[in-house]
């Protein structure tokens, strides 16, 4: 193993962690702030990825676009599109309580996946979109990874600062009030439905941005990327493990889970050669076991939601529904 | 718990760092496949077939000065996230000279776009059939040993036109297989050859009756129904109901329809007007050699994509030998060892190939799944034939061009 290789691998992991951290931040707004159980992250991820791909690729036959615009426009478009898709969904579905909302959003993510897979005019169908330009992609292997990492890191920092400000602002307190006791919040004159919708759209826009950055990094997006395992449930694991309700926790969770997810494969590869294929299943088992252990021994996550003063006397998480 | 988790993660990384210092004499190739995920049932046989090539290389003198070839297995989980992760590890941590895989097209596109093309590593996929792979700006580093979905659909269209088929209706299963084939067929039959497709409709899987679909398809007066579906599934139902109700006179199927289930269920006597296309290569000496060797290690040679996986690994090994182990020269060497010129090398003939390469002579690998003479896009044309139902099952009518 050369040092250069190790650096390249670390850069790759860092880029993926930043992308997943954005998705986890988006989910944190929805679940951590507003208590909305969104199990359809993959859908918004896909909307963002495809929107940005359509906006920024070169014109192609047989589908709309590409419009060959700058990737920044693509990323903004991705956020807008994901937010726009979230609006009617939120309007209809946010009346559901937690687990009903989860079922509805799983269904919606699946609808989005099927539409993407079977509408060649919109998304090139099952073949997906390739040759998406990658910012700074013309540089060498390591240089382009470094450049891309700087870009995604900058985006992540901006997103973190914005979300953290919102969390500490009156808006954040109000959201938590709605989450913890909807009736009380309503009695104080808060427009619960509208605020929930706000949180849902805001979170979905961040997920869309994460999807766009993923598509540009890989220079391609296919329906296979909208796999709920890696585009929904893995992000839930990150948020729960990191600590829902805590933005730093969401980012930390993304880092820890992705590092374990990725590095565990190298560890299980040390098994004897005859077990090379079986080792891959062992890895999935280890990840599941880890989640079980965390949920059993530290249900509030690595970095629990910060509580201020004596404003709440109950333990965090005790009053969740 | 926090510290414990960190300790665990750190421990894993440390163990990795210590354990993965390679013995200097090993040459590694990555075998990236969808071990977990939707194709988990197919992947082990494909990886075993590739490992067979590795084993044969090592038994017959190894790479270069007797260095050992090692196949490093990675899990792409059949999605881009897993594919790029596995490819990054193979390229950077294991230091592979080339990759066999990933298996699924989406993973191939992503792994090529973000890892192997920038790093200048050769990638040969044994099962990525998406036409998008042809269009990658890959600096000649991406190859495949399986034909693109485009080829079969277009070849079928040309053959049908030659055989004088007129107006046709097309029914296809609504998934990537059915859609890909149907669109390629339509593009060639209508746009290139000026043929007439009266109805072009997708159908969903697993319904009890397709009579309403068939009635719709029969409108427009086509006498031939082209079915892109699976002969042991929905395709069989459609064919049966079309025969029962006399909607069409003639039937044409893609390779999925060339299934013994069709003959067993419907009877050969009812299928005199049914033909289907399918890849051939089945009779070649190369395939016999591979089948025998793969049976010898306990594999099932009929497993799907086993022969393409073997070919990909063997080709990569030949290219590495030809390039003298230099990673940057492997891609060019892949086309040199299999371009139709030079002494023929069959599966398993590593020793012979090694001697010829050492002597500076040209070699031409004739693979189990085809000749693998790559075009400029790294694609293989694939060889197809049209089959009809005879007294002994499927029989070749004509080669397809």
UniProtKB/TrEMBL annotation, chain B:
Cellular component terms per the entry's GO annotation: membrane
Signal peptide segment: 1-25
The Receptor ligand binding region domain, residue ranges: 49-389
Compartment annotation: Membrane
Keywords: Amino-acid transport, Membrane, Signal, Transmembrane, Transmembrane helix, Transport
Transmembrane helix among keywords: yes
GO-annotated biological processes: amino acid transport
Superkingdom: Bacteria
InterPro entries according to UniProt: ANF_lig-bd_rcpt, BCAA_transport, Peripla_BP_I
Gene3D superfamilies, per database record: 3.40.50.2300
PANTHER family noted in UniProt: LEUCINE-SPECIFIC-BINDING PROTEIN (PTHR30483), PERIPLASMIC BINDING PROTEIN OF ABC TRANSPORTER FOR NATURAL AMINO ACIDS (PTHR30483:SF6)
Protein name, as recorded: Leucine-, isoleucine-, valine-, threonine-, and alanine-binding protein
High-level lineage: Bacteria, Pseudomonadati, Pseudomonadota, Alphaproteobacteria, Hyphomicrobiales
Gene assigned in the entry: braC_8
